[in-house]
Amino acid sequence: MKHVVFLFIIIIVVGCSTKKTETKDSVTSNINTTIKYAEGFKVTSLGKATRVEVTYPFQGATSGYTYLLVHKGDEIPEHDAKTKVITVPLSSIVCTSTTHIPFLNYLDETNALIGFPSTDYISSDIMRKRVDEGKVLELGIDKGINMERLVSLKPDMVMGYTMNSDYGQFKKMEELGIKVVINAEYLEKHPLGRAEWIKFMALFFDKEKIADSVFNAIEKEYIEVKAKADSIKQRPTVLSGIVYGDAWFLPGGENYASRLFRDAGGNYIYGDDTSNGFLQLSFESVYNKAHNTDYWIGVGSFNTLQEIKDADVRYAKFNPFIKKQVYTYNARMGAKGGSEFMELGYLRPDLILKDLVKILHPEVLPDYQLYFHKKLD
After folding, report:
1. Tens digit of each residue's pLDDT (9 = 90 or more) over 172-230
2. Alpha carbons 299 and 341: distance in angstroms, whole number
3. What is the DSSP string of 298-317?
4. Considering the entire predicted model, what is its pTM?
5. What CATH number is given for 232-375 in this structure?
6. CATH superfamily of the domain spanning 2-220
């Protein structure tokens, strides 16, 4: 929790100031929401209401979703049939991804969460306390969701996500009178773009100022650490991912993870690839290209080098395995086995970046201790 305390100290100092370094053109509305990195949503004003567009809700989408946020008691502006009206501020919410949970925590809306698909995946100590007290109910995953239980909770809104155009379960929710909003943070290419979706969540709780302060502090830390790494000439090579089934899954060259490796002063071995998803390659092709890399960062659920070798003895032929330069991002796990990296990492790319700089260039951050990552023995 010391990082959370540190962050809020920064917020007090930084206030609402921002830096314009490496941002796309800002999109501003008169509700003081400025989007600097995120490309997946837009915010504009429509009278007293707020118009929110999720422009790219899933990979390959050709259209998005539009929501009209209207305060209780205010007149609803004219809108087309596809625009969905959400009454704000919310008092309760059901989320479907652990990445939504830190947004609630940092906005001081922890108590708003009343339902979640599989509560064992929740890592946050403060949210787990609510789970243990029976204040966050388990609802079931995907098609197994208990609609009767969901309806009984009477949430003001469900925040969902989708990997494709299938809106099936969400459509059923809407038919039952439950408001659904799609969050597409996972598609952002820039680490700070993902973090900026805290501003998206904030719109539904009237917490825009808090979201700005949180994001500004994270941005400041990220930019300062990146600047230190940018000055380093020697860039060690980095490999990532492992084999699932018949293919080695690893980030594409324009992927969020690839950007983090680059910003940390690393030379990601597939950094010249132009895809922003995940590559699926044969073991042999990865070995031929990457067996002499300096570091191997991100090895799924493996906890020891022996586990990796037991899974496939060929892993032991990679240089970072031989030199014991293999790192997992699962140093912190929740009480029921959820990954804190998978939960908090989207909001805190500054911590991920510090970890990677500490691994690749330990002299740059001599007093920093790894947060999400650890070396495997």
Report:
1. 999 999 999 999 999 999 999 999 999 999 999 999 999 999 999 999 999 999 999 99
2. 13
3. --TT--SHHHHHHH-GGGGG
4. 0.90
5. 3.40.50.1980
6. Nitrogenase molybdenum iron protein domain (3.40.50.1980)
